[in-house]
């Protein structure tokens, strides 16, 4: 496979995935996002990708997400979203609390078996509240040994992949047995009403409708939406370029999200049909690309103890978050999207929102993820030094 062919594959495979979901009820249950992610992982481990692919792959990964986020926000009715903001903030605080409590427990379980376990705990607190950028930022701040950093990062990948597969494929059905259902901000006060529930289901179904996107009357406005998204990306990249490295990703995400929200207040932008679906398609390209980065040989070489540490933190914090969400009345979709934003970064929020068939949680998830970017470093570094006192 040449680099050119690989690029064409990245651009076109999501269309095949969406077509397959349309034709097969079984594949549709798996979801286009999961299919793209799985095919990417398969390609990355078959040894058929061309030499020098890294630059092309990173180009796709770095461009697709900043383009997709504004497109998926444009159609959001922000006034409706503000009715849900309190829940997303509370849910993020609960996942952050869960991560800190379980990391504290994991530290005491493994401190005699892992050198400088307080640093590992700090890394996972930063990483599972502020995602990967904070994982590495905390590691640098704590001067973690390079080999330990590689092992911890590989262990995190190993435990996160099955978790994320579950999130995409079955989380809404399973967690929905324990938590309240999500409903539109317009119908949340009448959740027991059959009409309200039907309204929610219709809204969820429309998110997967890609029909007529290529018709001129739809395509021309979509091109305009894409150009606007490119302009927003350009502004965000400018802010990214002049910001210190520790904060540049947070600034990029904050800029494109904020400009996307501002644009959604313009009726001519908000009313562009299928802009969400276009953004969703672009995020599927990202899904294939990032799947090719998973290296099973590196993952399997990780220390079993560090893998166990990572598993305890991830799955323990996630389960505790579900319990706390039930206690505080957080609904299923909000619990899922905020945990993904904190643990996997806001980059994955559009993809998960797509699998949930719920566009209304996108801005909530992005807001929670950006809050995680802003707070993860502080939480990870602070708690690492607190844990150091127990050595």
Would you tell me the structural class of the helices and strands?
A: mainly alpha
Radius of gyration: 21 Å
One letter per element, helices H and strands E, the order comes to HHHHHHHHHHHHHHHHHHH
Structurally, the number of domains stands at 1
Largest sheet: none
Total strands: the figure is 0
Number of helices: 19
Beta-strand fraction estimate:
under 5%
Distance between the termini: 52 Å
Provide the helix percentage.
Answer: over 70%
| Oligomeric status | single chain
Global outline = globular
For the structure shown, list the relevant keywords:
single chain, 391 residues, mainly alpha, 79% helix
Describe this structure in words.
It contains 19 helices and no strands. The chain is an all-alpha fold. It has one domain.
Give a short summary of the structure.
It is built from 19 helices and no strands.
């Amino acid at each position: 496979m040449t680099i050119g062919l690989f690029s064409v594959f990245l651009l076109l495979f999501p269309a095949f995935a969406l077509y397959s979901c349309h034709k097969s009820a079984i594949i549709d249950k798996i979801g286009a996002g999961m299919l793209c992610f799985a095919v990417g992982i398969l390609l990355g481990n078959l040894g058929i990708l061309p030499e020098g692919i890294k630059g092309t792959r990173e180009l796709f990964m770095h461009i697709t997400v900043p383009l997709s986020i504004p497109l998926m926000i444009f159609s959001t009715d922000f006034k409706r979203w503000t009715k849900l903001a309190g829940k997303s903030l509370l849910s993020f605080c609960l996942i952050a609390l869960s991560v800190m409590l379980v990391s504290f427990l994991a530290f005491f379980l493994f401190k005699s078996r892992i050198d400088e376990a307080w640093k590992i705990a700090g890394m996972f607190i930063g990483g599972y509240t502020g995602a990967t950028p904070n994982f590495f930022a905390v590691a640098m701040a704590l001067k973690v040994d390079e080999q330990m950093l590689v092992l911890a990062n590989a262990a995190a990948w190993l435990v996160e992949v099955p978790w994320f597969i579950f999130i995409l494929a079955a989380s809404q059905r399973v967690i929905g047995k324990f938590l309240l259902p999500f409903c539109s901000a317009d119908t949340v006060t009448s959740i027991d009403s059959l009409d309200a529930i039907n309204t929610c289901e219709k809204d969820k179904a429309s998110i997967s409708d890609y029909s007529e996107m290529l018709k001129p009357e739809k395509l021309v406005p979509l091109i305009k939406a894409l150009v606007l998204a490119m302009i927003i990306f350009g502004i965000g990249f400018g802010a990214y370029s002049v910001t210190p490295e520790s904060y540049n990703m947070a600034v990029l995400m904050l800029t494109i999200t904020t400009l996307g929200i501002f644009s959604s207040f313009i009726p001519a932008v908000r009313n562009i049909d299928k802009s969400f679906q276009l953004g969703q398609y672009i995020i599927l390209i990202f899904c294939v690309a990032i799947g090719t980065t998973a290296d099973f040989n590196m993952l399997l070489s990780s220390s079993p103890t560090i893998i166990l540490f990572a598993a305890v933190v991830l799955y323990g914090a996630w389960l505790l978050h579900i319990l706390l969400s039930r206690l505080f009345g957080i609904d299923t979709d909000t619990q899922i999207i905020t945990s993904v934003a904190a643990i996997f970064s806001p980059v994955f929020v559009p993809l998960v929102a797509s699998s949930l068939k719920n566009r209304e949680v996108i801005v909530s998830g992005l807001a929670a993820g950006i809050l995680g970017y802003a707070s993860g470093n502080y939480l990870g570094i602070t708690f690492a030094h607190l844990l150091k006192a127990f050595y």
